[in-house]
Each structure stands twice: as structure tokens, then as C-alpha cells.
Design a protein that fits this description.
- This protein is α+β, with helices and mostly antiparallel strands and 268 residues long.
- It contains seven helices and twelve strands.
- The protein has a five-stranded mixed β-sheet with strand order 7-6-12-9-10. It has a three-stranded antiparallel β-sheet with strand order 2-1-5. A two-stranded antiparallel sheet has the order 3-4.
- α1 packs antiparallel against α7.
- It is elongated and about 100 Å long.
Length: 268
């Protein structure tokens, strides 16, 4: 029986060491060594404006006074907007892929009548002003120009419950909204070391993010930007093949005991 007792002791130690503690999965904790953020405390931040990059697709909507009188503020039929939204949600692509204008490698978009307009590294509002100024050379009546991206497009890779490519039809989105949209993270996801791959006009940068730390709310990575990629690695507990929680670990122990008892009976 002595070997069996040793086996039980070993399995007990394995269970204690392999269970994932709450400290490794609870978001937005006040971490030791950092200034705490109290519940209810007002957190101010400046949301960085997105600047257009190569391969972005923008929608340029131009209306004159006559257009508004005939069609109202929206010169697209409602069913067309609904169809575009359905295609986007199903494919994870840009809703303006078929109707919008792509920023080429030189930073230009090619528009009807006005030709090429340089928009790279400009905000949507700056691009709108430039396009409107170019159009006024051809249109003498009052103009209304609207420039938009096809929502926030991002990718969720690794330990997500629903990894994939997503498009959210809104102008801004937090990293926790992006995670929730992908079904949240799995229990074994390494929340303290999330890799954010972000595109900039001059290239790509890799950032490491700690979702357990409440300080992330004050960081420049709290808001997702178009074309962001989130990659989450698994913890070591998955590599070891042990249970994610106490119930699973106990189940492994009882399975091990049953297997050992069967082997001992066969030996006798």
C-alpha cells in the first residue's frame, strides 16, 4: 500500500499546483506596485484618432441640396444598408469592399471626377475636408460630404472561445468589448500577457498587455483600432494536461486512483 499512498500524495500535490487561481483570470485588478484605481473613480483619457493606412477602404458619401430634397439625409435605400451589414457580419470583411475606395500603396484614393486624393496618415475628418475642397471645383451647389470606415475590423487568435475575424459596426470599441465579441477568453488563457499587433501608417508594432491590471483603462491600448490583431497564449497548465479547475483535477485524481487500483489487482 505504500506505493499507493505515495501516488495519492503525488496526485494531491499535482492538483494543488495545477489548479488555476482566481488571481490569474479576474480582469481589472489593482496590482501590487501600481497606483490603485478605486471603484467609481473617474478615469479620463484621450482617444487617439485613427489615421488612414494602405489598404484601408473608405466610404465617400456625397450629397447636394437636390439629393437631400429627394432622398433625405440618407441617399442609399435602407435595404442596401441592411444587406451590406449582413454581408459584413457573415464574412468578417469590410462592408464597403464592393462600393468603397481603397487607399493604394501611394496613399491615394481614386474618386470619380476629382481623380486621386492623398489621404494616407490623415484622420477621417481631414480626408473629408480635402475631398470636399476638391469637389467644390466641379460642383457649384452646396455639398455635404461624409467619409467613414466600415466599422472596427479586428482579429482574435489563440485562446478565445470563438477565435476569428470580426467587424463591429461602431466608431470605437474597447479591448474588453472586442474580447466579449469573440466569446471571452478560455479559462487557460494567459490574460497577463496578451499580444496586440497594431498597424501604424509607418509599419507594424507589437505591444504586450496585462488584462488583469486595472491600469489598462488608462493606457493607449484600451480602445481597439481598425486592423488590430489580438493573440492570447495558453498557460503552462494546458501544456501539462492537468485540469483547469478543482473539479477537473479531482476527476483526474480519481481516474488515476482507479487505474492504479486496477493495475495492482492485476499484479496480485
Amino acid at each position: 500500500m505504500f506505493p499507493l499512498k505515495r501516488l495519492l500524495f503525488f496526485l494531491l500535490l499535482l492538483t494543488i499546483s495545477s489548479c488555476i487561481s482566481n488571481e490569474k483570470i479576474i480582469y481589472l485588478q489593482n496590482q501590487d506596485g501600481n497606483a490603485g484605481i478605486a471603484d467609481g473613480e473617474l478615469i479620463t483619457y484621450k482617444i487617439p484618432e485613427y489615421r488612414l493606412q494602405y489598404n484601408d477602404i473608405i466610404d465617400v458619401n456625397v450629397q447636394t441640396v437636390d439629393d437631400m430634397a429627394q432622398f433625405g439625409f440618407n441617399n442609399r435605400p435602407p435595404q442596401v444598408n441592411a444587406q451590406m451589414g449582413n454581408v459584413s457580419s457573415q464574412s468578417g470583411g469590410d462592408i464597403y469592399y464592393m462600393t468603397g475606395y481603397t487607399v493604394d500603396e501611394k496613399g491615394n484614393v481614386r474618386l470619380p471626377i476629382v481623380g486621386e486624393v492623398y489621404v494616407r496618415n490623415k484622420t477621417l475628418d481631414e480626408a473629408r475636408v480635402d475631398i470636399e475642397q476638391r469637389l467644390r471645383g466641379f460642383v457649384k451647389s452646396e455639398l455635404y460630404v461624409k467619409v467613414k470606415l466600415g466599422g472596427v475590423r479586428y482579429s482574435a487568435l489563440g485562446e478565445f472561445k470563438r477565435p476569428g475575424k470580426y467587424v463591429v459596426l461602431q466608431d470605437r470599441m474597447t479591448i474588453f468589448e472586442a474580447i466579449a465579441n469573440a466569446g471571452d477568453l478560455t479559462t487557460v488563457a494567459k490574460r497577463s500577457d496578451v499580444l496586440l499587433i497594431r498597424q501604424y501608417p509607418e509599419g507594424t508594432k507589437l505591444h504586450r498587455i496585462d488584462l488583469l491590471d486595472r491600469q489598462i483603462v488608462e493606457s493607449p491600448f484600451y480602445f481597439i483600432q481598425p486592423n488590430d490583431q489580438l493573440y492570447v497564449e495558453p498557460m503552462k497548465v494546458r501544456e501539462a494536461g492537468t485540469g483547469e479547475n478543482t473539479a477537473q483535477s479531482l476527476a483526474l485524481i480519481f481516474s488515476g486512483i482507479s487505474a492504479m487500483a486496477l493495475i495492482l489487482n492485476l499484479i496480485k
